[in-house]
Amino acid sequence: MHSATTTAGPTEVPPQAVRPRRAWAIFGTVGGLVGLVGIFATATLTAPAEEFRADNAGYVAALSERTGYVWAHQVVTVVAIVCLAVFAAGLRRYLAAQEPADSLVPALAATGVGLVLVGLVVGGGISTELFFALGAAEQYDPDVIAPQLTIVATMPWLWGGIGLTAGAVAVGGLRHGSVSRWFAVFSAVIAVLIAATQLTPVQYIALVPAGVWTIVAGLALAFGQRTAPRRS
């Protein structure tokens, strides 16, 4: 009598979620922190001249010794630009791996950060001209320098694009589970807050909720998310 033997087939091991290293996400946290704190700090550039708002010559003269603030502003915007550019690329790649192949979420999320980058490039780029103009204010037309100060005080603050990013992440998380539910809900709340700043004459303040979202997003995506197979 022969004992029956059976050949065991290969055992299928279900795919398990893994947590890859995501240095790109930390760049988001750093970019958001540097942007939020740095832009507010360098905004004090014009503090000593507020009483001269209606007098460009007096306004510029009162700021002629504050070129250090302009230089600091330039450094802040450059660091934020580099960090947020890396974050945008990583976020797009991450969401593309989680979302259905035809989803618009990855592209919209990256586009929102890209809009902020444009504002930072313009708002920081004027620093070179402004630095030399303030340093030799007597050689420049104050009516030319004053608008440059307005650009510095406006463009880098326009972080409304993060509202688009947060909204896209919220949709992806709630509809497809591409991010955790708490982060999706948090992103939806931030998107609404930023939208409110864009629909009222307080667009500058978008920097606050947008900066907070970017800081939290970097930490959440670096340490709190697991990669799952893409949904078809």
From TrEMBL:
Keyword list, A-Z: Membrane, Transmembrane, Transmembrane helix
Signal peptide annotation: none
Top-level taxon in the UniProt lineage: Bacteria
Keyword Transmembrane: yes
Bilayer-crossing regions: 24-49, 69-91, 103-126, 146-170, 182-199, 205-224
Protein name: DUF4386 family protein
